[in-house]
Write a structure and sequence with these properties.
Order of helices and strands: EEHEEHEH
Number of strands: 5
CATH architecture: Alpha-Beta Complex
CATH superfamily: Conserved hypothetical protein from pyrococcus furiosus pfu- 392566-001, ParB domain
Strand order of the largest sheet: 1-5-3-4-2
Helix content: 25-40%
Largest sheet: 5 strands, mixed
Structural class: alpha/beta
Radius of gyration: 13 Å
CATH class: Alpha Beta
CATH topology: Conserved hypothetical protein from pyrococcus furiosus pfu- 392566-001, ParB domain
């Protein structure tokens, strides 16, 4: 099955080198209650939405990543490869 243009999908172990990109701050971290609810949901249903990265930096999904890490569930990532599109999305 062909991949959509502009990203690639992979399942990965927790990477110490994955860090948040400054631009990820437009998506705030959850409060403790919401984070616990997210962990319960991921524990029950699995990770439904992948974690988006760009050059091994999280651009969306820090809460999902942290929940997977706490639950010891291997996360699924989408690596954004279309730099010009990413920059236009973040500047919108």
């Amino acid at each position: 099955m062909p991949q959509p243009q502009g990203h690639r999908r992979y399942v990965g172990k927790y990477k110490n080198k994955i860090r948040k990109k400054e631009e990820a701050d437009i998506f705030p971290l959850m409060n403790k209650i919401s984070f616990e609810e997210l962990k319960k949901d991921i524990s029950k249903n699995g990770l439904l939405e992948p974690i988006w990265t760009y050059q091994d930096q999280i651009i969306d999904g820090r809460n999902r990543y942290n929940a997977c890490k706490k639950l010891k569930i291997e996360p699924v990532f989408n690596e954004w490869t279309a730099k010009d599109r990413l920059l236009s999305l973040l500047s919108a």
